[in-house]
């Protein structure tokens, strides 16, 4: 019942924004995401949703992509005054961008929504649009451990994403790919939030 209510909230971009602000710790996410890089070049934000963390990348030539047309329309209206920010309701498997078009790809908070059989194919498509030597910055929540705060466990159990993985699972996935290499990886403890958050993993993946 609760999961159904949360799903309905997520279908409304405005309510989703409010929910993410309170429970998703958007401000803290933007700080964490931005720590991975410093130079503003051409960036693809895969699974950008409503553009709720776009603010952190306004110095980039920013492209957001998501399958949800409602979220994309909301994001387009929200950031319409920024000529360097663009949003597209596109399927990455249909190759909406040219080969080696982006300097960076942000793949954040989306992995736990993707089933195993699609995860590696999606990473391949993201590598296709990435320049050689470019980087994918991957962030995602991790499956709570026994020592995780109770509320973090509850939020994870209610998350719409049904494929929350462990750091070891992501290690196995990324280390087995020949077209990228792990340049950096770590587990991030999310602090300074009103609601306790799950730990995040970070992987800086370099195209070879």
From TrEMBL:
Sequence intervals crossing the membrane: none
Classification via Gene3D superfamilies: Vaccinia Virus protein VP39
Keyword Lipid biosynthesis in annotation: no
Residue ranges constituting the Methyltransferase domain according to the UniProt record: 44-134
SUPFAM superfamilies documented for this protein: S-adenosyl-L-methionine-dependent methyltransferases
Keyword Transferase annotated: yes
Name this protein carries in UniProt: Methyltransferase domain-containing protein
Organism expressing this protein natively: Candidatus Collierbacteria bacterium GW2011_GWA2_46_26
Lineage, top ranks: Bacteria, Candidatus Collieribacteriota
């Amino acid at each position: 019942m609760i999961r159904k209510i949360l799903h309905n909230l997520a279908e409304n971009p405005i309510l989703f924004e409010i929910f993410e602000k309170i429970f998703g710790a958007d401000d803290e996410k933007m700080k964490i995401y931005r720590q991975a890089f410093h130079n503003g070049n051409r960036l693809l934000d895969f699974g950008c949703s409503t553009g709720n963390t776009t603010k952190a990348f306004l110095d980039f030539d920013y492209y957001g992509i998501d399958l949800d047309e409602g979220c994309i329309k909301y994001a387009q209206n929200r950031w319409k005054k920024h000529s360097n920010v663009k949003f597209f309701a596109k399927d990455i498997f249909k190759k909406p961008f040219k080969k080696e078009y982006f300097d960076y790809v942000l793949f954040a908070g989306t992995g736990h929504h993707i089933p195993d059989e699609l995860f590696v194919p999606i990473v391949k498509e993201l590598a296709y649009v990435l320049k050689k030597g470019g980087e994918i910055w991957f962030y995602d929540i991790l499956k709570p451990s026994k020592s995780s705060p109770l509320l973090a466990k509850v939020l994870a159990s209610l998350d719409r994403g049904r494929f929350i993985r462990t750091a070891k699972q992501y290690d196995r996935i990324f280390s087995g790919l020949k077209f990228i290499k792990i340049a950096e990886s770590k587990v991030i403890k999310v602090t300074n939030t009103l609601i306790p958050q799950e730990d995040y993993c970070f992987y800086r993946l370099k195209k070879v």
